Amino acid sequence: MNRILFERSERRADGTVVLSGVRAAHIRDVLHADVGSVLKVGEIDGLVGTGRICEQTADAVHLAVTLDMPSPAPWVDLLLAVPRPKALKRLWPQLATLGVGRIVLLNAARVESVYFGTQWIQDEHARPLLIEGAMQAGTTHLPTLLVRRRFRWFLEDELDALFPTPWRLMAHPGPVTPITLPPDVNNVRPLLAVGPEGGWTPHECELLVDRGFQPLSLGTRILRSDTACVALLAVLGHACSAHHAPHVVRQTSFQ
Q: How far is CA 89 from the centre of its chain?
C-alpha cells in the first residue's frame, strides 16, 4: 500500500478516520508507524493528502486526515472481451494500478457464456481488488465497470456516446505494428480494445476497424488476457510518455 485509501462514508465529521482490518495491520506491521506518524492517504475517487496517527489500539488506527491535492486521473479506457474468471481476478488490481478509467467487459465469439456468471464481474467482489490496485499506484480513482453481452449492438449504439475519443486501438496478434500517436496526444484519452486469447475473429476485427480502431500488435505470440492487457498498457503508456504526455507520465511509474 503506497497510499492508504478509505471510503467517503468512513470519514467522520471531525475529519478523523478509523481504520481496522488489513489497513490497520499494514500500518502497524509493515509501516511500523506509531502515534504521531504521518501517512499518505486518500479518499476513494476523491482527494489525496496525509493522515496523522492520533490514536492506535490493538485492532484500530485513528487518523486525523487532511486532504488537499487532486489524485492523478486515469489516462486510458479499455474494451475487454471477458476473460476466464481466474484471469479477471488477477487483472482487476493491475488495471487500477496502471491507470485505466473505464472498462467495458464485452462478449465476443470466443468468449464462453459461462464467464458472465463469474463473481468477479460483481462490484462487491471486484471493488476490493480495484482498491488494492489503486493503493499500490498511490491514486484514489477506481476504474468504473460496464458489462455488455451484445458486441455489435454496443459498437453501433453505445460506443460513440461513451467514448467519443478519435484515438481507438484494436489489439490483435500479428506482425508488430508501431503506435501512431495523434498530434494532440496530451489532450486525447486512448481507448484500447483487447480481445479473447487468440484475438478477435475476422468479422469482429472488421467491425472494430469500421468504428475507427487502428490495429495494434505486440507480435504473433498468443498471450493470456491478463498478460496481454498489462503488456499493451505498458507499451502504450511508454509511447505516450516518450512524447511528453504529462497525464500519462504520472500513471506509468512502477514501484
A: 13
| Tens of pLDDT, residues 217-235 | 988 888 888 999 999 999 9
Most confident of 83-97, 167-181, 184-198: 83-97
106's CB contacts (< 8 A; 6+ apart) are 79, 80, 81, 82, 148, 151, 154
Contact indicator for 186, 247 with CB cutoff of 8 Å:
yes
> Is 102 inside a domain boundary?
yes
DSSP structural state of residue 170:
E
CA nearest 118: which of 97, 145, 99, 95?
A: 145
| pLDDT tens digit sequence for 5-62 | 999 999 998 989 999 999 999 999 999 999 999 999 999 999 999 999 999 998 999 9
Is residue 47 within 8 Å of residue 71, measured between CB atoms?
yes
Calpha distance 134→226 (Å, rounded) = 17
Where does a domain end: 69, 92, 108? 69
DSSP assignment of 11-50 equals B-TTSEEEEEHHHHHIIIIIS---TT-EEEEEETTS-EEE
229: nearest Cα among 90, 130, 129: 90
Question: Does some domain include residue 60?
Answer: yes
* 162 plus 223 within the same structural domain: yes
The DSSP result for 180-245, as a single string, is: ---TTGGG---EEEE-STT---HHHHHHHHHTTEEEE-S-SS---HHHHHHHHHHHHHHHHHHTT-
61 and 126 in a single domain? The answer is: no
Pair (120, 41) in one structural domain: no
